[in-house]
Every structure is written in structure tokens, then in C-alpha cells.
Design brief:
127 residues, alpha+beta, SH3 type barrels, 2 domains, five-stranded antiparallel beta sheet, two-stranded antiparallel sheet, 2 helices, 30% helix, 32% strand
């Protein structure tokens, strides 16, 4: 009896969690249709966002857009992980937002490769 109750409670928790994830992804899709990217980071200033002049970055045939969560591997074996805010062509940098810390600037010339962890507003390939 108790095991059945635990299974029912865990099933309900799993369904609610899954529905919340689907709801958040649909919300991101709506923001994408309105050309909005929401970054929940209080350390990013308006000046930082205005300084970035491009919202899409292509490195080694990998295309990343603002809002995508990426991992950057530099030539000196350092790894940076964060959400791409944008890139500045004239300064040669890209800005990564990280939770609870200040955003970091990565020089584009020092990037060996990037890996997309998750795309903004992407739930499944066909969704």
C-alpha cells in the first residue's frame, strides 16, 4: 500500500516537472517569435548588451546565437561555460553570462572550439 502511494506521488511529481519544462520552452519560443532573448542575470548591464554588435557567432562551422548555452574551449586549455549574450566585432570578444557571477569576456582569437550545450527555445528538433 505504501509503495503504491510512493509510486503515485513520484509519478505526479514527474508529470508536473515535465509540464513545467514544456511550458518554459513554449514561453521561450514565444519570446523568439518576438525577437526577444531573456537573460535572468542582474550582473549584465545595459552598456554590456549595447556594446555587443552581433547576436550570432560562427566559429569552426558551429553557429551560436544569443541565448544559447555554450562551452568555450580556448587554445590555452581553459574552459568557459555560459549563456552567449553577443559578440563585438571591433573588440574581437564575445560575452558569456554565468549565473551568480559577473559576465566574462572571451577573446574570439583565443577560441579553439565551441560546443553548444543547449539552444535557446529548442525543445526538440522538430518542435
Amino acid at each position: 500500500m505504501i509503495i503504491e502511494l510512493i509510486i503515485i506521488v513520484l509519478s505526479i511529481i514527474w508529470v508536473v516537472t515535465y509540464l513545467a519544462y514544456v511550458g518554459a520552452t513554449i514561453k521561450e519560443k514565444i519570446y523568439l517569435q518576438k525577437n526577444m532573448v531573456v537573460l535572468d542575470n542582474k550582473n549584465i548591464s545595459k552598456h554590456d548588451i549595447e556594446r555587443m554588435d552581433t547576436k550570432e557567432l560562427i566559429i569552426n562551422k558551429v553557429s551560436a546565437k544569443s541565448g544559447d548555452e555554450i562551452r568555450v574551449f580556448s587554445q590555452d586549455a581553459q574552459v568557459a561555460k555560459g549563456i552567449l549574450v553577443g559578440a563585438s566585432k571591433k573588440d574581437g570578444i564575445m560575452l558569456l553570462s554565468r549565473p551568480y557571477t559577473k559576465p566574462i569576456e572571451v577573446k574570439v582569437a583565443s577560441i579553439k572550439r565551441i560546443k553548444i550545450i543547449s539552444r535557446y527555445g529548442r525543445f526538440m528538433k522538430n518542435f
